[in-house]
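Lab notebook: predicted structure, single chain.

Context: the supervisor wants predicted structures on file for every construct in the current expression panel, including those that have not yet been purified. This is the next one on the list. No modifications to the sequence; it matches the entry in the shared construct table.
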Amino acid sequence: MKLKFYWYISEAYMDGILRPACACIDAKESSDEFIANYLMDDGGLFYFDSISWLKEILEKISIFKKQKNAFLNLSREVWTADFSTSGVRVYSLHDENCVREISLNAMELALFEWVKFLETTPEIEKSLVIDLSSLVDE
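Prediction complete. Output recorded below exactly as produced.
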């Protein structure tokens, strides 16, 4: 699974503001997109305001990984993630059939790279592709 981070101008808002987006490329299943949905679920906040919350998630994951038999739920507005020692279960809070499981290391890397991308200067031609293929089903 590869995730592409990029900047775009919303046609819906028509305000000329660059916004971050994430999409799954080379998806093997439609549920691969759920990881991108979780990353982008900002509750309507300006993307920059969600960075501190994302960093807090990464801190919690770091602590979590040191514990054995731990469980951690990190919900956003529409998407949530259940972290366990066996992996991460990402699912929609509105449709229980929208579920994707991914390894803890893959989710941690996706979150880390998403935060780094959000902290860059927005540019319409700037994008970043991260490859989680080797980590997805660890």
